[in-house]
Amino acid sequence: MKTTLIAPSVLAADFGNLQSETLMLNRSQADWIHIDVMDGLFVPNISFGFPVLEVVAKHATKPLDVHLMVDKPERYTARFQKAGAHHITIHAEATTNLHRALQEIRDLGCKAGVALNPHTPVSVLEDIINMVDIVLLMSVNPGFGGQAFIPGTIAKIVKTRRLISESGSNALIEIDGGISAANAGLCTDAGADVLVAGNFVFSAKDPEVVISSLKNNIKLY
Ligand code: DX5
Ligand code: ZN
């Protein structure tokens, strides 16, 4: 069986205890640490920026998977790399120069990711699929944690998986938003490689147990 990568989202963590939350993720079966950056323009919410990423980077022993929900993200990719990002994912909807921006991320030595909002068709990936390491499909509208998973995401995963195999790309498919035990298996069966989980992990009594359950596809509830 193929193993699923788990990327807990720090957006749902206790910011007053960011160091201990990061140490918990280091101990857990999490594979990546997902960092949601929101600019109040591309999405109707503001989360955090460089100082918070730097705190997590100081303590983390796992790759930092930075998801930029930021307009014209090419303005900031070099700074995020400097602040500790290993992966930088930008939205197709946020830049008119997607091809160049992805190339710049790879030139910085980071893994390059492209994210699609729920309304954006998979076909926009056709001409850049061989330039990306990660395709992030939003399974909620970006901007907030704790929203309900959009069921149409499953068909989109299947389409993305087909595009990736037809193009010979090695990109991983990452699903972001509303992930829980109720839909994690549906996503991985459809072809997802990486699951982001915010509230499902951090609102649990024992986040480490929930991370293992997602990783090993065990239903706790
Ligand atoms: C939404 C963010 C997600 C979100 C996931 O805009 O990109 O990463 O924090 O949180 P949950 O799992 O709570 O939906
Ligand atoms: Zn995210």
Architecture overview:
The longest helix is centred in the C-terminal third of the chain and has 15 residues, at 153-167. The protein is built from eight helices and eight strands. The chain is an alpha/beta fold and 221 residues long. Strands 1-8-7-6-5-4-3-2 form an eight-stranded parallel β-sheet. Bound molecules: D-xylitol-5-phosphate and zinc ion (ZN).
Give a short synopsis of this structure.
The chain is α/β, with parallel strands linked by helices and 221 residues long. It has eight helices and eight strands.
Summarize the biggest pleated sheet.
Answer: 8 strands, parallel
Helical fraction equals: 25-40%
Distance between the termini: 22 Å
- List each distinct ligand once: D-xylitol-5-phosphate, zinc ion
How many runs of DSSP E, i.e. beta strands?
8
Shape: globular
Structural class category: alpha/beta
pLDDT < 50 runs, ≥5 residues: none
Radius of gyration: 16 Å
Share of residues in strands: 15-25%
Mean pLDDT: 97
Helical segment count: 8
SSE arrangement, N to C: EHEHEHEHEEHEHEHH
| Quaternary structure | single chain
